[in-house]
Amino acid sequence: MKTIFSGIKPTGTVTLGNYIGAMKHFVNLQDEHDAYYCIVDLHSITVDIDRVELMNNTRALAALYIASGLNPEKSTIFVQSEVKAHAQLGWMLTCLSGMGELERMTQYKDKSQGKDRIGAGLFVYPTLMAADILLYDAELVPVGDDQKQHIELTRDLAQRFNSRYYETFKMPEPVIAETGARIMSLTSPDKKMSKTDTNPKGYISMLDAPDVIRKKIKSAVTDSEGIVRFDRENKPGVSNLLEIYSLLAGISIKDLEAKYDGLNYGVFKADVAEVIVAELEPIQQRYHELIDSEELDLILDQGRDKAELVASRKLAKVEKAMGLQRKR
Ligand code: ATP
Ligand code: MG
């Protein structure tokens, strides 16, 4: 049994990309491991976000975690800002990191591109993410492929801390699936599907109504070849839809290519949409039962208490190692 940590930001609604790249793995890993799944709201304030929207998103994400199959008996599900040690350790690790290594983060480069004002929080955000992981001595971190670089930084910081002070942190490893780790945008299949895309047609939200899903898939960008064939380089749109279909229906891409041999994109897309609808409908139903329930608050209270216990113990060790203590 290993310790697992991962999180999703409550910025916008969770997408099919988050579901396939992260959440589905969270569910699979909880049976065999000691898992902590966090709603990382302190990461959401690295960009401007309305306070009421943030509160609603936080609750919605918690409900979606559970509706997707996270079991509070097996996993610790909690809200990041409710466990103060995250921000505290985040600061300590910020002080341990260099401007140069943070500047090299490709996600920072992407997210700050074209902005007149770049928040300092966006710049140091990977150090907070490192704190999230290291607080729990997480050994495995299930993430999408875009987070690989941040886990490498986390390992560097852990190593630096351990050698500068004394052995305090465990080395985490990313768990990145071979397929589905980068679901692409439906409108620009050269970019990853992202919940903060300004064009909602680019992503499927986990709470999109069936007809919205059908419309979005129907208008998804493909190509003019007219053959359902996997070729990520030359046919990124069709390949992305094939990957989604394959992962959700449990049919290999080879078998799907054979199934749609001689059929046009219209038929193929209609089936992709139905596979997504069938996956999301039961999740949406459970979500609606949970969203205003007291059950949800009880789960989050329990999660916070458990996380708090583990995190505060680790923080005390870090403070001691760094000399953040009064001499008596
Ligand atoms: P944002 O654009 O605000 O960063 P996001 O969709 O990337 O939103 P995050 O909260 O940053 O969402 O990421 C949550 C998890 O989902 C991470 O593990 C991330 O790697 C994974 N993930 C995000 N987008 C995709 C995608 N398109 N395909 C697969 N996994 C993804
Ligand atoms: Mg992201």
From TrEMBL:
A motif ('HIGH' region) lies at residues 10-18. This is Tryptophan--tRNA ligase. It is an enzyme of class 6 (ligase). PROSITE patterns: AA_TRNA_LIGASE_I. GO terms for molecular function: ATP binding; tryptophan-tRNA ligase activity. One of its GO terms (cellular component) is cytosol. The gene is trpS. Catalyzes the attachment of tryptophan to tRNA(Trp). InterPro entries: aa-tRNA-synth_I_CS, aa-tRNA-synth_Ic, Rossmann-like_a/b/a_fold, Trp-tRNA-ligase, Trp-tRNA-ligase_bac-type, Trp-tRNA_synthetase.
